[in-house]
Task: structure prediction
Amino acid sequence: MSKDFKDKVVVITGASSGIGECTAILFAQHGANVVLCGRDEQKLSSALQKCQEKSGGNVDKHLAVQGDITDSQVRRRIVQQTIDKFGHLDVLVSNAGIITKNISLEDATEEAFDLTISTNVKAGFFLIQEAIPHLEKSQGCIVVVSSITSTVAVPYEIIYGMSKAAVDYMTKTYALGLAPKGIRVNAINPTAVSFTRFERYYCDEEESRVSYLKYASQQPLYRRNSTPEEQAQTILFLASSAASFITGQCVNVDGGCSLAGPQVDY
Result:
C-alpha cells in the first residue's frame, strides 16, 4: 500500500490527537498530502510537525486548518483551503467527535444531547456534503469513525451511542447514494482506545479508572484496549485501492468486544 497515497490529498478531522493524529502521521508516511483539522491550535501544530517529519521535513506538503467542525464556515473553509492549496481531494476521514461521560438515562440533558449530535452527526454529515463534488472528480473515498456503541447498548453512554448509531446509518446511506458517483464510504467502529479522549475521560477519577482498567482486562483479544495506531491502519486500508470494492461497511475494530458485549458495571 505504500505507493497508493503518493501525492493523494487526505483531509482528516479531529487530527490533533488520538486516532486522528495517528491516521494523519500514517498517511504522511505513505506519501499523502495531509490536511489536518482540529480545535486545539497547539496540538494541531504538533501533529502537523510530526507529519512534516515523516515527509522529510517538507513544510509545504501538509496543511493545518484550525477551527470547530460544528461551525459551517469552518467546514467550508476546510474544503476550500484544501482545493486552493492542492487542487483536488482524494480521501476524507471524518473522525472528529466527542464522548459524553457517564450520563445516566435519568440525568441526560438537552445540552449534552444537542452538543453530541451536533458534533458527532451533523458536522460530519455536512462536511461530507461539502466534499462530494471534489471526491466525485477524483473518484475518492470517505472513512468515518464510529464506535461499537452504535450496536452494543451501554446505558451510561446512551447519547454517545445514539449518535454513533446515526453515524452508521449515515455511512451506509451515503455509500449507497454516492456509489453511482464512484465514491466509496465506509466506517470503522472502535472499542475503547488507549491514549485518547476516552481514556482521559474515564481515568480522571479513581472509581472510573478502576472500571476502565477492568474493561480493558476483559477485552476478548489480548486483554487490553486498542491503540490509535491499530485504528489508523484500518482507516488506511479502507482508503486504499486494496479496498476498492468495499463500500457501505461498518468495520468493528474491537478485539472481539462486540461479540461478548461490554463487561462493565452499570
